[in-house]
Predict the 3D structure of the following.
Amino acid sequence: MCASTLAEIGPAVATGATRSAKQAITLSEHVIEIISDSGEGAQRCGQSFGAIAARMGNGVWTVEIIPAEIQPPARSIAGASGNRIRIGTHRVTNGGNEANLVVAFNEQVLLGRVRERELKPGCTVLLESMWRDHPDAGIAAAYRETREQLVRDGYDVREIPMEQECKRLVSDPRRGKNMFVLGMLCSLYSFDLQLARDQVAFIFGKKDQNVIKANVALLEAGHEWAESNLDFKYRIPAARATEAQIVVNGNTALALGVMASGMDVCAMYPITPATSASHYLSEVFENVGGIVHQAEDEIAACAFAIGASYAGKCAVTITSGPGYSLKQEAIGLAVMCEIPLVVVDVQRGGPSTGQPTKAEQGDLLAACFGSHGDAPKVVMAPSSIEDCFYSILTARKIAETFNMVVVVLSDANLATSQQPFPRPKFNEAWLAPPVNQDPVPEGAKPYDWDPLTGIARRFVPGQPNGMHTLTGLAHDRLSRVAYDPESNEEGLRHRSLKLAALQKSLKTPPLFGGEDGELLVIGWGSTRGAIEEAVGRLRAEGHQVSSLHLRFIQPMPGGIGEILKRFKQVMTIEMNWCDRPGDELIDASNRRVSALAMMLRARYLVDIDCWGEVRGQPLKPDAVCRVISNKLVQGRR
Amino acid sequence: MSTRAHECLMRMYLEEHNLESYQGSIPRWCSGCGDNAILTAVQRLCRDEKLRPEKTVFVSGIGCSSRLPHYMKTYGFHGIHGRALPVAEGIRLARPDLNVFVTTGDGDCCSIGAAHWIHAIRYNMNMTVMLHDNQIYGLTKMQVSPTSPKGLRSKTTPRGAFLEPLNPLTVTLGIQNASFVAQAVDWIPELIYEILSRAFHHKGCSFVRIIQRCPEFLPELLDPWLHDPNRTLLLTHEKGLQVSASLSRVYKNQREHDPMDIDRAREIASAGDPIPVGILYHNPSVPRYEELHAIEPLRTPELIQRGLEAELDKFTIWPQEEAG
Ligand SMILES: Cc1ncc(C[n+]2csc(CCOP(=O)(O)OP(=O)(O)O)c2C)c(N)n1
Ligand code: SF4
Ligand SMILES: [Mg+2]
């Protein structure tokens, strides 16, 4: 079941590897990892490799491999730093399954990836061989043992004298090896070397010509070495793109969205994995007149954003789980006072400090129901890198139309993954309107709630006749503190109504696959690519499975109830915890289900099952395939 | 001159500024509460400075004192406990044209919001901060505060407060970028006004601690100072406060203090009793965060588009011809 439809890749054994005899094996896709100690440049190598693939017209998805520590000890199992690049003939929507080929700068980081089961059994390993004769006998022994073990386990290990080859060109090979490797990979994947030279010139663009020259020389040396010494070669056919594409990770896409939405202020406090969005914004936001404010903590960041937004300049605050928890009280204030605010939560593993660099979807319920009392707010989740950009535009617009808090849930997977998407074409309608300073009409009230939609026009400081005091206390239409039962209910009712009004304007999300069938899989956020790939594969095998991906989770668009009825079984697949039905104490009366499953069950009264994984890694299509297959079998029993 | 600006000037000229222009709803503080004196002083200040009510924002946290914005007829933001300062900073950064005042209590500022207090001083953004220090939690009904004297019996320290109080003046004077630090007492309303007026005119974060009586919970706490004018020390200087003759007749304990002298200011702040009243420190040349880090006032769509396209260029892969 679920056999890969792709060409299976075994080690390519060519006899007497001469350059002319090498036949490129055609593949429809491959997953490549480049790993090193941190600081050795594997990340840059991987990103460049992905960018060259994109220039070739291939579908690409790259994911960073990040050690939890800043400077883990050299050659440590947990210290792997680098990149995973998935390249395909067609569009690639996720990081894929285990790696088919891995380049490792030492055997220890490689071991780490083997143990995490990130490498395909028997895959090709290009291993730096300098450790074999290391003066430290311990290191040399560790290297030899590991290599032998890997060979025994069936890996196709190729020892590559990277250091030695680079030494011919540069005095400090540690700092140039990554370009040598890049050249090797360009040869192995039959990339156009000129595109690779362009890419190198592009990444070192700010440096002087000598730096570019030195790196191009390393690139060419790597290419040449692989051409002459490796007996295999691949080709992943692609059609060159016909339109301009941009290649960025999810956090940069978020930041570009902030710029493009006309927001003025980003208030933040550093936290992994959200910070890189603010790093980038700090570089460039001033060019469009905006500012990044690094506050003293997340509470202050959120309060600062609220202050700016209250005063008429739409603001965003970007954070991750622990910071989101701290913001909760202030978010409630924005809800109560109906101040537009965009909050981005780039989710990581939780609870508490959890897994800072790892992906998880554990914050959904906190986002939907967090802050004490009833604090209705909009919650949306981008499902691709491109969507990270457009979600911010949408979020800003909704926040200001409905005077609401909009929470955008990204995660560590989107944050550090890159995927090319069509270059956005600027539209003035994306921008926030200028601050309204017109006099308020006589008799207008600060909370003139529309009885149908709950929306009240708000008065911004500077507007004559609009003077009033906003308060987080219960209040009446004049914004006076009011504890009487009617005022309190009236406020709660109208703040809640706004979600319904927004919901009426949302379209039912499209089904992926068929309109009905045996099983519907529902997901949200970054898992879209993996889920749809698995569903597509199983449908190709004749299974009646479809999927639905929610961009808006609160409010949930209409029409979903009808869809659910057309499927025999429904389940969610999420990257958060749900109790395993097989565990001895777990039964229907106590099973804790995944977040979205819980929300769907509550709303639609349908017995929706769920499957979740919290391994910190992005979902793999193969794993999703297995889950769906099992579920299909269960359903037929 | 354009008609619009002309009309504007006309309107300003015609507009009357009297106390009622700034009076919001009727204060609900206990009778004799020192907050009333502070409210009256700021209303007078607004009138005398002819502040446009729509251009003026009072920001507060939570506490008895934080109710003050409701009693003003300006814009107001009565937020959450301890967070008045960051809200006010966001407003200030967004809107250089507004007058920003902050009202906070000793619990609000010195306990739950203490981190923001330190950083607000360091940011030195243009705003007038009034710390209503009644040395007790009023709104929640008499719990010990960080400024409560040692031994004070409160609902949470029935056998007396354990610790020596924190001194808001020495703390503030110890923070980098402090630019205006003053102290007033609610029983000398004339000086609350004078000091707030100086604070208002200072461009930067003016921090004014106002010792405020809470007759509801601590009716006798400040009696020794009220009964003995010599236990109040007026700080005077040609660059600081000048005290009226009538006031000088009562408060004879006076001392020249140059507000530029931070070392003396710290000494005076540390002494504590007699209570110093006046401007302890004033340095008009400390840079302000909103000057160093400002939103571009003219953010045209063209500017944004240009900036965005330049960024997109950095990441763009243009369609390419197949290499030959
Ligand atoms: C997060 C939070 N914690 C606690 C409270 C309860 N609370 C309200 S006001 C206050 C203390 C007020 O004391 P202070 O700031 O000195 O103001 P005062 O009432 O004395 O003017 C407390 C603890 C709250 N509103 N919010
Ligand atoms: S409790 Fe104290 S501080 Fe609060 S209003 Fe009454 S007197 Fe004033
Ligand atoms: Mg108090």
In short: Residues 18-286 of chain B form a domain with the Rossmann fold fold (CATH 3.40.50.970). The first strand of chain B starts at residue 56 and ends at 60. The mean pLDDT of chain B is 94. Residues 184 and 210 of chain B are 5 Å apart (CA to CA).
